[in-house]
Design goal:
The chain is mainly α. It folds into 2 domains: 89 residues; 106 residues, no CATH class. It is 64% helix and 2% strand. A two-stranded antiparallel ribbon has the order 1-2. Strand 1 and strand 2 form a beta hairpin. The longest helix is centred in the N-terminal third of the chain and has 60 residues. The chain starts with 6 loop residues before the first helix and ends with a helix.
Length: 217
């Protein structure tokens, strides 16, 4: 039996009842009509009324089923999405990749020097005034930090096991031998922890370009 759950379904349901009753009444009326043509016309009207009743009942049924099925499907797909997200989080944790911005040892993440703004609906979206853009020339130490962080993420994606809490010097022990530009570990440590006056003098444009060429491009 159909369970009518909302006003729209009830509306269609009662229209169906009225149409069925009208059809039944017309079929009963034909027996009282002696004129054959008039009786045939009444039969046609009764049949049309019954067909209309079936259509209204179908609409009522479909609307009620939608209210039952949609939440059920939403619940099922929600569980699937949750399960997939949990699996992805486990993989990220195993690889040492932290949430959202691929953070390495605290505050570093390669999106603080994105080469351009991301676009949304044709307009520029601000990532935050504190973020530094590469094409605004943030300084060579910042560029080295960007290159290092992006290189670490690149190695993680290729299967290297790197803890997000590892320092650059710790990563040098496991990755230095296979790194095409092993100086990056020392340069990153200098760029991040040394006073800006010292790090700016130590890291020049040629070093940045070489690191970019060997580690990212």
């Amino acid at each position: 039996m159909l369970i009518v759950r909302d006003k729209k379904s009830k509306k269609y349901f009662w229209k169906a009842i009225i149409a069925f009753l009208a059809g039944a009444g017309l079929f009963a009326l034909k027996n009282l009509i002696k004129d054959k043509n008039a009786a045939d016309f009444v039969i046609i009207l009764g049949s049309a009324s019954c067909i209309l009743g079936v259509w209204f009942y179908y609409k009522s049924l479909m609307n009620s089923m939608e209210l039952i099925v949609k939440p059920a499907l939403k619940k099922v797909f929600g569980k699937i999405v949750k399960s997939v997200k949990k699996t992805v989080d486990k993989i990220k944790k195993k690889l040492g990749i932290s949430e959202k911005t691929w953070r390495m040892k605290g505050s570093d993440s390669f999106n603080f020097v994105l080469p351009s703004w991301s676009k949304k609906k044709g307009t520029k979206r601000d990532f935050g005034k504190s973020r530094i853009k590469w094409n605004e020339d943030p300084g060579n130490p910042w560029k080295i930090r960007y290159i290092y962080t992006k290189y670490i993420v690149k190695r993680q994606k290729k299967g290297a096991y790197i803890k997000s809490s590892s320092t650059a010097l710790e990563n040098e022990e496991s990755l230095g031998a296979s790194c095409p530009f092993p100086e990056i570990f020392q340069l990153y440590t200098l760029s991040r922890y040394a006073p800006s006056k010292i790090s700016n003098q130590a890291v020049n444009d040629e070093t940045v370009e070489e690191a970019m060429e060997k580690l990212i491009k």
